[in-house]
Specification:
The chain is α/β, with parallel strands linked by helices and 290 residues long. It is built from nine helices and eleven strands. The chain folds into two domains: 91 residues, Leucine Dehydrogenase, chain A, domain 1 (Rossmann fold, 3-Layer(aba) Sandwich), CATH 3.40.50.10860; 128 residues, 3-Layer(aba) Sandwich (Rossmann fold), CATH 3.40.50. Helix 2 packs across helix 9.
Amino acid sequence: MTARILDGKATAAAIKAEVAERVAALKAHGIVPGLGTVLVGEDPGSLKYVAGKHRDCQEVGITSIRVDLPGTATQNEILAAVQQLNEDPACTGYIVQLPLPAGVDTNLILESVDPDKDADGLHPTNLGRLALRAKEPITSPLPCTPSAVIELLRRYGIDLNGRDVAVIGRGTTVGRSIGLMLTRRDINATVTLMHTGTTNMAEKVRSADVVIAAAGSPRLVDPSWIKPGAIVLDVGVSRVVEDGRERIVGDVAEGVRDVAAWISPNPGGVGPMTRAMLLENVVKMAERTP
């Protein structure tokens, strides 16, 4: 068996084409969506990611609003940038790129974002709504990477109703939030969240129909962990140096492709989809404009 590929690049391109049509329709009614970013410092990964988001905006017709601060920016200066975007009518939604410099209270910064402009869907108010509304519709922004995972599977016709899902990693961006989404009534999966305190992890993962690896631990998931025919999504990202070159690798070892039925590669899987879902969030917010 060789796993079929859940192609995030191709799927993200299709979503961006759909978003571009929706942006054009909004502009015809005098509404111009705008995505803002707050970037502090010059972390190479953050610079690359933010630049990619603004390229995406240009492709689909969303206005880019970029606020770049030096790595020496104080907490008050960062809060001022957040307030600037909160008050900017041209900014439909925005993100504060992480990580922030040492000594800055990241939670304070993120909690200062207007929940109605929370393009990442990770503001405590929006996560709280997600936790409370397991059966009701949700109109507030949803976390981008969990949305990317679910949308990628949906576009390939994979139904998660009744499936056992193993999530590896308990970070806020994926692990802690994706369970809230997968266990909603409209998706109806059963989720086991695993982390560094989990005993017999390999055995527990092996019982899952779907594995979402989001630990940020290079090649953690061994082929022996995977039930034959399972669906595997490689979400975690690590930078490693091999043969003198820096490479991006995921959490899933290469041999998993010989056991799983479906796999999302890394890079090229959930990453492009996450950026596409960020655009989707911004357009949805603009579409709710009175």
